[in-house]
Write a structure and sequence with these properties.
This protein is 29% helix and 28% strand. With 358 residues, it is of the alpha+beta class. The strands form four sheets. Strands 5-17-16-15-10-19-8-7 form an eight-stranded antiparallel sheet, with no helix packed on it. Strands 6-9-18-11-12-13-14 form a seven-stranded antiparallel sheet, with no helix packed on it. Helix 2 packs antiparallel against helix 3. The radius of gyration is 40 Å and the shape is elongated.
Length: 358
């Protein structure tokens, strides 16, 4: 039938109906098939939707990165447990050391009193003073060690370390000494030289040799050329000439020091001098039994290494003949970066040479 409506399936005319959903025309036979087909398609769509929803519920648990996260968690737990055990061991050692020094101090009080009595110089004042000392030591038994946990806030997992002082060791909070068979190499290949002198000394051999040329017991302050703010740097020296008793200072100084107030006992200085002296930000400790440094064993022609460990904020002195490493923490509030090499000569003709880097 020209110009009439036709079924979209069989293309026949006759009784033709319009689908109000898709606006297509069908005959009375195919209209029902069309409606059933649409219903089936709708059912399939709903079923596909349900499958997608179910997949979404479980997809968050199947990502491959979860295994990596689980592994990271296990490894982090192991690191935390290892760090905790190491810190416990350090704390036990610090407590043992504090108790040992406390016991030694008690013994010294009684021993000195006995020597005084044997020398027949004993008096009531000696007894009273010794009793007061023992009472003070007894009061320290309750808390021989003051310690704090230090968190590494730069890490996502804040690792901890132990830091503390005991009542016998307040002056040098982080002084250590230990023996090694061979000095380990350190990072940093900067060649140091002597660059500046305040006092009676002269620099020779293009900055590698410095010599005191003034009167005895007049201090000559010598500064290195380099500035140090990061890394670990070792400078080796040879004592070319040293009067006895040995009295040469090796250490570091903040480059921000006041040149009008320069002195080896200044707050911005840390290092080792003669007479068994350890200088730590204006505090002097001469007790070699406490800090282990014995300057009287250093002689002419000895080789010493000074290490400026900026990353760990400490310096180390290593007399190679004695094979003992002396460590000294540096307080950045008192001696801020950058640091400089700092040497002090005391006696006429005392001289020190910087050895070339290997």
């Amino acid at each position: 039938m020209p110009g009439g409506r036709h079924c979209m399936i069989c293309d026949k005319g006759g009784i033709i109906m319009l689908c109000d959903r898709c606006q297509q025309t069908f005959c009375d036979k195919h209209i029902n098939e069309h409606r059933q087909q649409s219903s089936h398609q709708l059912d399939s769509l709903i079923q596909e939707h349900d499958l997608i929803q179910e997949e979404l519920k479980h997809s968050s648990k199947k990502h491959s990165l979860f295994k990596s996260i689980d592994q990271w968690e296990k490894e982090s737990i192991v690191k935390i447990q290892t760090t905790a055990e190491n810190v416990r061991n350090e704390l036990r050692q610090m407590i043992d050391d504090a108790n040992e020094r406390l016991a030694s101090a008690c013994h010294d009080v009684v021993n000195n009193l006995q020597k005084t009595r044997e020398a027949r110089q004993f008096c009531d004042n000696d007894l009273k003073r010794s009793m007061q000392q023992l009472q003070q030591l007894k009061m320290k038994l309750a808390s021989p060690l003051s310690a704090d946990l230090i968190e590494d806030t730069k890490s996502i997992i804040h690792l901890i370390s132990i830091q503390g002082t005991d009542f016998m060791h307040k002056e040098l909070e982080k002084t250590k000494v230990y023996t090694v068979s061979k000095r380990l190499p350190t990072s940093g290949g900067i060649q140091e030289k002597f660059a500046k002198v305040i006092g009676s000394a002269i620099i020779n051999e293009e900055g590698f040799l410095v010599r005191h040329h003034g009167q005895n017991s007049t201090f000559a302050y010598i500064f290195g050329e380099q500035l140090y703010s990061k890394g670990k740097h070792t400078i080796r020296f040879k004592i070319e000439q040293s009067q006895m008793p040995y009295n040469i200072f090796f250490g570091c100084i903040s480059s921000q020091f006041n040149s009008d107030q320069i002195h080896y006992d200044s707050p911005w200085v840390a290092g080792w001098f003669g007479h068994n002296e350890v200088h730590h930000h204006g505090i002097t400790n001469r007790n070699s039994e406490m800090h282990g440094y014995e300057s009287n064993k250093i002689e002419t022609y000895d080789v010493l290494s000074l290490t400026l460990d900026c990353d760990h904020r400490q310096i180390e002195l290593y007399p190679e003949r004695s094979k003992k490493i002396h460590e000294l923490a540096v307080n950045l509030e008192k001696a801020p970066f950058p640091w400089q090499l700092f040497v002090v000569l005391t006696y006429k003709n005392d001289s020190v040479r910087i050895l070339h880097n290997k």
